[in-house]
Design brief:
CATH class: Alpha Beta
Order of helices and strands: HHHEHEHEEHHEHEE
Distance between the termini: 31 Å
Oligomer: single chain
Bound molecules: S-adenosylmethionine
CATH architecture: 3-Layer(aba) Sandwich
Strand order of the largest sheet: 3-2-1-4-5-7-6
Structural class: alpha/beta
Number of domains: 1
Strand content: 15-25%
Length: 215
């Protein structure tokens, strides 16, 4: 049943991805950076970490604990989180606007649903049990686009769906107070906050993992 649903959703996402491809994609704070490694080189760093014995799937472990049958990996990059969730039997769709990052994801896992799209205007025409913004996506979206991003991601959740985001707290990016305030404006309330994907308590650290659900 799960794999049948997965096939159907993949077909749907591929169709929607093509429609989305027709729209001009805007930029992000990620695409504009020349000092950050992209695509295959970004992916190689995670591979190195995995080879050194580190668990690079803390996000997937965290998301899986909610028991979702379907997950939107929003700002999926090279697909690290989506691929792991898919390997664990979850129906996933990865969305990103950076073709260098998505190119790596597509090469590594051609059978998964990869959508080239801007999170500010995303309309996939389907919902998910969970959506995850992993790997600092919230500090790489264009300043001022945060509400549009969170609103369109939240619109892709089922009624009881959970929106999960992990990002660094930096002076030049969205603060946790701003994040919660935007969430509240779009009808989502804080359900939990930790300082790591392993659920260490949040006590003002410079990294936060937050979950929000519809009010
Ligand atoms: C640091 S990478 C994280 C990739 C992946 N989530 C991970 O954890 O490995 C941040 C990603 O956010 C994406 N991004 C930023 N703004 C976006 C937007 N408006 N729409 C889609 N993707 C966006 C970037 O293109 C980039 O791939």
């Amino acid at each position: 049943m799960r794999s049948k649903e997965r096939l159907l959703s993949r077909k749907n996402a591929n169709r929607i991805g093509k429609i989305n491809d027709l729209k001009p994609l805007t930029s992000s704070r990620w695409s504009g950076r020349t000092d950050l490694v992209q695509g295959d080189r970004y992916d190689a760093r995670w591979k190195q970490l995995a080879q050194s014995g580190q668990n690079i799937h803390g996000e997937a472990d965290f998301v899986e604990a909610y028991g979702p049958l379907s997950v939107l990996d929003a700002g999926c990059g090279t697909g690290r989180v989506a691929m792991e969730l898919y390997r664990r039997g979850i129906d996933v769709v990865g969305v990103d606007l950076d073709e260098r990052m998505l190119g790596t994801a597509r090469r590594k896992a051609p059978d998964l649903s990869w959508v080239s799209g801007d999170l500010t205007t995303l309309e996939l025409g389907r919902t998910f049990d969970a959506a995850v913004l992993a790997g600092n996506v919230m500090i790489f979206v264009l300043p001022g686009s945060e509400k549009a991003v969170l609103s369109s991601v939240a619109n892709h959740l089922t009624t009881n769906g959970v929106l999960i985001a992990g990002f660094e707290i930096k002076p030049d990016a969205i603060s946790l107070a701003e994040y919660d305030s935007v969430m509240s404006e779009i009808g989502m309330e804080l359900a939990g906050r930790w300082s790591t994907w392993q659920r260490d308590p949040y006590q003002g650290q410079r990294y936060a993992v937050s979950t929000h659900r519809r009010i």
